[in-house]
Amino acid sequence: MRAVDLIQKKRDGLELTKTEIEWLIKGYVAGTVPDYQMSAFAMAIYFKGMTTREISDLTMSMVATGEQIDLSAISGIKVDKHSTGGVGDKVTLILAPLVASFDVPVAKMSGRGLGHTGGTLDKLESIKGYQIEIEQEQFIQQVQDIGVSVIGQSDKLVMADKLLYALRDVTATVDTIPLIASSVMSKKIAAGADAILLDVTVGEGAFMKNIEDARQLAQTMVDLGKAVGRKTVAVLTDMSQPVGTSIGNRLEILEALDILQGKGSGDVSLFICELAQIMLSLANVEKSIEEVRAHLENGLALKKFEEMVVAQGGDVEDLHRSVKVAYEVDVFAEKTGYISGLPALEFGLFAMKLGAGRAVKSDDLDYESGIAFAKKVGQSVEKDEKIATIYSNIAITNDMISEFQSHIMIGDSAVEPKEILEIIS
Ligand code: URA
């Protein structure tokens, strides 16, 4: 077989066989198919797409390029959750302990942030001492002992995705459904959970800009999960504005702690309770929203989170401390009206420039910097009322404030934001 022939076949819109896909992926990981041919192949997929059968073969070929985690030592139905990326997305920090507080085990591998999107690992690492790299046996033991662990994805999982994702990142081939679906699902399948909740983000701050594409991606991933015997549900969630009220690693830990104590803003708490309800149901535990919310209000979810932090070497005192920055600058409304838009992409990029995110993979983070919003979409605002506070260790110039203000959209009538747009199961 020759890579050039397979690239040409895909370029001409033809369907590749399972053997051909396996050969390409194996060869890529082995180094016999070079980056330049894989980039051409990714671009051919970008323009010509793949059939469901091809995506499934691609996914399983990728799974075969690494370790597969065996979670069978943990009793019960293990449920995993994955988000396709967002701004201010602290959902895992709350959802994992909340679900575990109902004795449903959560063994979760998370990723880092890049560009305008944040990563759960970076948020956890803003807690002094928290270890994201622990041995697999210890990870499994911890889930057996306390029911929850969130760690970094093992380097040995899905080698093909590591190489391919880096290549896609620099060849403009990230945002295509066959490649996103196979990337996400190969990792989820290899990570070993019995059931998977997929949070497919939609909007300006997400890979999927419109609901039709998000629906197609979600359905593709649900079908892939089901085909290999994993109960899979996808929710389409709004990423036109940041999730919750903060962007930034430590700020998001603090917001997560508020939500875990029943003190979060109503909308985001309800959204997380709805996701928890779906995850619990995947493990055959049926609970009402009120029963789920009770675990935020009675301290059980917070206790689980603190247990996880301690088990992974984190300092609980440090966990609860507030942010330490050189500059705190409030931003005020330029007119009276209703907040009609807080574009997630723009504010994610703004937070990145403060040091809260990485422009390139090798960038260091400033865990303390970020943005806390006092107002969200749909809320009314008076001229000169505070809309947000910028937390920074670099001086905030007037130009930066003007830029920040230019992203805030204020309209004449109230719009009603909706977190979960659709459920696909
Ligand atoms: N998240 C992933 O893990 N892979 C993609 O391709 C996109 C988002």
UniProtKB/TrEMBL annotation:
Domain (Pyrimidine nucleoside phosphorylase C-terminal): residue spans on this chain: 338-411
Catalyses: uridine + phosphate = alpha-D-ribose 1-phosphate + uracil; 2'-deoxyuridine + phosphate = 2-deoxy-alpha-D-ribose 1-phosphate + uracil; thymidine + phosphate = 2-deoxy-alpha-D-ribose 1-phosphate + thymine
* Cofactors, names only: K(+)
Q: Which domain of life is it from?
A: Bacteria
Question: Can you name one GO molecular function term for this protein?
Answer: 1,4-alpha-oligoglucan phosphorylase activity
Q: Which PROSITE patterns match?
A: THYMID_PHOSPHORYLASE
Signal peptide start and end residues: none
Assigned EC number = 2.4.2.2
Query: Which keywords does this Swiss-Prot/TrEMBL entry list?
Result: Glycosyltransferase, Metal-binding, Transferase
Mind listing the GO biological process terms from this record?
A: pyrimidine nucleobase metabolic process; pyrimidine nucleoside metabolic process
Write out the GO cellular component annotations: cytosol
* SMART domains on file: PYNP_C
Which PANTHER family does UniProt cross-reference here?
THYMIDINE PHOSPHORYLASE
Q: Which family does it belong to?
A: Belongs to the thymidine/pyrimidine-nucleoside phosphorylase family.
Record function comment: Catalyzes phosphorolysis of the pyrimidine nucleosides uridine, thymidine and 2'-deoxyuridine with the formation of the corresponding pyrimidine base and ribose-1-phosphate.
On assembly, the entry states: Homodimer.
Protein name (database record) = Pyrimidine-nucleoside phosphorylase
Q: Which organism is it from?
A: Streptococcus varani
Q: What is the lineage of its organism?
A: Bacteria, Bacillati, Bacillota, Bacilli, Lactobacillales
